[in-house]
Amino acid sequence: MTTAVTRGRVVLISLICIFALPAVIAKLILSQGWYESGVTNRGKLVEPYTSLTQLGQSSPLTEKGWQLAYVLPSACEAQCQQQLHLMQQSHIALGKYQERVVPVVWTTGDATPFNGSMLVMQMNESLAKTVEAGQVLIVDPLGQLVMSYTPSENEDLAQLSKDMLADLRKLLKLSRVG
Q1: Is residue 84 located within the same domain as residue 2?
Q2: Which domain of life is it from (predicted)?
Q3: pLDDT reported for residue 113
Q4: Helices (H), strands (E): how many in the chain?
């Protein structure tokens, strides 16, 4: 009878270890920071939650829709011109999602006038403090700033536009709003 009791205890302890050990190992790996989660977005998420209404800025769109916004620097040099061209090309490259997205140029009071086919929005002070000149932002139909793309001085703007386009397509595919 004692061997049956011992055998039953061994089976019980084994079952507990089989089911509890993976949870204990997972907790250890997560608490020690040994696991790095993979991300699929290529841009930087705008955190904390920021919307145009919180910043006191009204949306330039009459209907709700996604915005692909470019913050126009005070002097639009060659990199700025290239970024504007790539933004227009990215909008065309959206294909079936093109009607859901509106390219918008955000300007400050001291920015040079922009002559183009894109919608222009004058930024207020709080929005101008939140964003950087030369930055591209994705804004959802509710006015929330979702993702930002800030090119560095020698960065390939074509690759940055491809990354932005990939993220925007993914957002539009998963979104039911706008």
Answers
A1: no
A2: Bacteria
A3: 60
A4: 4, 6
In this structure, the number of other CB atoms found within 10 A of the CB of residue 67 comes to 25
Compute mean pLDDT per 10 residues along the chain, 178 residues long, and list them: 83 91 91 80 87 89 87 88 91 91 87 71 90 92 92 85 92 82
Asked if 86 contacts 153 with a C-beta cutoff of 8 angstroms, the reply is: no
* Structural domain of 29: 1-38
**pLDDT at residue 1 in the model:** 61
- The alpha-helical segments, DSSP class H, found in 33-97 are 78-93
The label of the residue with tokens 């977005």 reads: 41
* Rounded Cα gap, residues 27 and 134, in angstroms: 42
Domain count, the chain: 2
Q: What are the helix (H) ranges across 33-174?
A: 78-93, 125-130, 157-174
Beta bridge partners of 123: none
Q: Is 164 left (phi over 0), alpha (psi -120 to 50) or beta?
A: alpha
Minimal CA–CA distance to 69: which of 163, 167, 148? 148
CATH number at residue 95: 3.40.30.10
